[in-house]
Design goal:
By secondary structure, the chain is α/β, with parallel strands linked by helices. The chain contains 6 helices and 11 strands. A 9-stranded mixed sheet has the order 1-2-11-10-3-4-6-5-9, with helices on both faces. It has a two-stranded antiparallel sheet with strand order 7-8. Helix 2 crosses helix 3 (about 140-150) and helix 4 crosses helix 5 (about 255-265). Residues about 115-120 and about 295 have low confidence and may be disordered.
């Protein structure tokens, strides 16, 4: 894996990377700065999960997800995803994982949980105008619809059901056990390999089109102290949205799950990540990747 820190305000040249020798390249920096310098129509498939609004404190000044106003958060992501549409090939797809959140009810911070060390936060955003304490905000759908109005084709809302979801101590609502995965396309007609992700029928004697509710456990990452993007969620996106040797982009690379799955499926990958700590964890996780046993044609 190769990590690059591009010079400020200079175009990043046409994809000389990644290669068979360096199948995963991480661009170290802020996605908002880097993605606008990537060349047009460069990536076949984009799979990502951006920071959720008001959910985690990454300890980075100006971090996405810590905006005081919800609309600023949504507009920031829509601007980034507009650049995603530019760098995506005309036949490409964009897979966006995003979860909903609740209004904080006036609390200004959140203490560490012994079962979830990543839960501690030094800030909590105020309740958005027009909402009330304890309201479900609906961030996932607000973002999806803004992206649709900005020009994306919104093709599917997929429910990621988490059988091992984080327990909650709430007594007046149900425990949240799902997030959303939205499938967007750049064009009306796009590459989609339905055969690659077909499911077994109930009796096991045949195959059927994959349904829009996916039951996938979360995956812990001791080095990161929080559950990470699970491989089981990423794999169908890459299989359906790309071919061997295609280039995948994750503009919020985190600890590298998209790169790991890309490598396992004989795809190439470019990630953008701000935190050096996460790049080091991704490097450690990627070192164990075994590519497909059957070479890509």
């Amino acid at each position: 894996m190769n990590s690059i820190s591009p010079s400020n305000n200079t175009p990043i040249p046409a994809l000389e990377w990644p290669t068979d020798q360096e199948p995963i390249v991480i661009l170290h920096g802020d996605t908002r700065d880097i993605i606008r310098r990537l060349p047009d129509n460069s990536f076949q498939c984009v799979v990502t999960s951006p920071p959720y609004w008001g959910v985690r404190d990454y300890g980075v000044e100006g971090q996405i997800g810590a905006e005081a106003e919800l609309d600023v958060y949504l507009d920031t992501l829509v601007d980034i995803f507009r650049e995603v549409r530019r760098v995506l090939k005309p036949e490409g797809t964009f897979w966006l994982n995003i979860g909903n959140t609740y209004s904080s009810g006036g609390r200004k911070w959140r203490q560490e949980d012994d079962k979830n060390k990543g839960r501690a936060m030094s800030y909590r955003p105020p309740t958005p105008p027009g909402l009330k304490k304890k309201d479900l905000i609906g961030v996932a759908w607000l973002l999806a619809l803004k992206c649709q109005r900005d020009g994306w084709y919104l093709r599917n809302d997929i429910i990621w059901y988490k059988p091992n979801c984080q327990p909650e101590s709430v007594k007046d609502r149900f425990t949240v056990a799902h997030e959303y995965l939205f499938l967007f396309s750049k064009s009306e007609h796009y590459y989609f390999d339905q055969e690659a992700i077909k499911e077994r029928t109930t009796n096991g004697n045949g195959l059927k089109n994959k349904r829009s509710v996916w039951s996938i456990n979360t995956e812990p990452c001791p080095d990161a102290h929080f559950a990470v993007f699970p491989k089981g969620l990423v794999r169908p996106c890459i299989l359906a949205g790309s071919r061997p040797n295609d280039v995948i982009l994750d503009p919020f690379y985190g600890v590298g799950t998209v790169g790991i799955v890309s490598g396992e499926l004989s795809r190439l990958c470019v990630g953008i990540e701000l935190k050096q700590e996460y790049i080091e964890i991704a490097d450690k996780r990627t070192a164990a990747v075994q590519p497909a046993l059957i070479p890509a044609e």
